[in-house]
Every structure is written in structure tokens, then in C-alpha cells.
Description:
Distance between the termini: 48 Å
Shape: globular
Mean pLDDT: 84
Low-confidence stretches: none
Order of helices and strands: HHHHH
Number of helices: 5
Largest sheet: none
Radius of gyration: 15 Å
Structural class: mainly alpha
Number of strands: 0
Helix content: 40-55%
Amino acid sequence: MPETKVFPVALTGAERDRLSRVVSAGAHPARMIMRARVLLALDGNDGSAAERGLVARQIGVSETTVRSVTERFVETEGDVEATITRKRRATPPVARK
């Protein structure tokens, strides 16, 4: 059985406040709010980091989504804004023929 990778999420107080404002304001894109909720649920600083399956069920997303958000958090070296915002395309779309 393959080992699952662990992607720890540790947020500062300011980051938790920012994510809480994103979630509670409701003036942001739905995917941004969902990613913020995932990060808040996975925050391990208070000692009660939940497992991915439980977080997925609580938020109403798949475990793959939770894994993707945590991977992106680690890839961006803990940058919350880069994690919750939409990635920009590296190349422009192909022009129609």
C-alpha cells in the first residue's frame, strides 16, 4: 500500500484572520471561499488538525480537493494568498482557426 504524503498546514494569527474574513464576507469567488475553509479546517497550530477525509466531509468537497489545496499551500511555501487565489495561465489560449 503506498504511503500518503503529509502536507502540514500551519497558519499565523494574521493569516487565520484574513481567511476568516474571506469566508465570512461572501464577496469573493466560491472557489476562493472553499479553499479558505479548507485551510482553516486543516490548520495545525491549535493542535487539533483534522484528517483530510473528515475535513472533506465537513466542507462538502472531495478528498482530492483537500489534497490539492494542501499541496498548493506547501508548493507556495505557505503563501495563503497564492493558495486561495486562481492560478494565472502560463501561456495565452490558442487562437481560433
